[in-house]
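Good morning C.,

I know you're traveling, so I'll keep this short. The sequence:
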Amino acid sequence: MFDSDRWQEIYHVLSKNVLRTLLTAFGVFWGMFMLVILMGSGNGLRTGVLSSFGSFATNSFFMWGGSTSMPYKGFQKGRGVSFTNDDTETLKRELTSAAVVAPKRQLGGYRSSSYVTRGNKSGSSFGVSGDVPEIIDISPKKIVAGRWLNDRDIEEKRKVAVIGARVRDVLFDPSENPIGEWININGIYFMVVGVHDLEFTSGHNDRDLESILTPLSTFQQAFNQGDRVGWYSIMAKPGYLASDVELEAREILKRAHNIHPDDPRAIGGWNADKEFQKISGLFIAINILVWIVGIGTLLAGIIGVSNIMLIVVKERTKEIGIRKAIGATPFTIVSQIILEAIILTGLAGYLGMSSGVALLDLVDGMLGNSGGMFKQPGIDLSTALVFLTIIVFSGALAGIIPATKAAGVNPIIALRSE
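The tokens, ready to paste straight into the viewer:
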């Protein structure tokens, strides 16, 4: 392996016809380059899409009241379903597989906006909601000033609020500290006790920056909401599937509201775990497709190397015959041809992989944090090692047929060849 004469011979063979060698190597180079680019781009897309979940609890789901579509126990279909504090207590008591049951109520309804003032400053696009402290376990928020809601806020019905960073920017001067100040929400004053920012950024959750969160008990009393709840955010305990917990929660609420067990419209919902699994499954399929396309392209290059090595063996028939005549073993002949194929394939493949990684790094640097749904394209170390293994294996594969042909050369016939 470390015989200098052998390496000189490899150099002589590969440099004898430079154009042919380069064209052959380009097939392997391009196959590996495309495999790296496709794999790295797939990883970038996957990172971008999954980052939209951020630190959001993917083992969670949401449920809200709809209208019945089936008659049941004397009740006609079309009956509206709304939740109350009693439902919250029922869920906390009976839904033992849930780690968090967080009721929520939005002023004006889902995604509605409210008019909020402070002195001579105002904003009309802010979402005001009543929440419980546990919601932060499902939808994490970064507290940049003050504190988060706590249990005493709920118990004592304190008129306090945690505001989004954009609310702070609109209602307060840059030099002002909003903590301890009062804001007016529909004629009712709340003291700011905290400011939150986003744990992660994506197009669909930027509205959280314009949110104002108050204790649910205070919200219900201050805005004449009675004991009504808009919807529930529920997180499954470790070891439980969110889908199974959702089915159990639906059964509990349907029993409590005399809803037909098979009614599909009475309770609406969105399951983060299901969506996460769908996206994960999609990227598994994309990765499989990338490997098929990349390996197919690389295989075309390997076939090219094998064909060229067959031509090289044919050109060196007389030389191989002389070697065998003076005592060269079949193993020596075979190992020489395979080593030449590995060197050609390995060098071209490594350059293809390096070029692909360099291009992905360049794209990543140009995108920075503005990639949106395409972030941090690239391959990890384990994938790179797999690619290197593929390169070496491909080289050996490309040399097997030519090496076998070389080993079978008859020295007498070879010496007569021109």
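Safe travels,
E.
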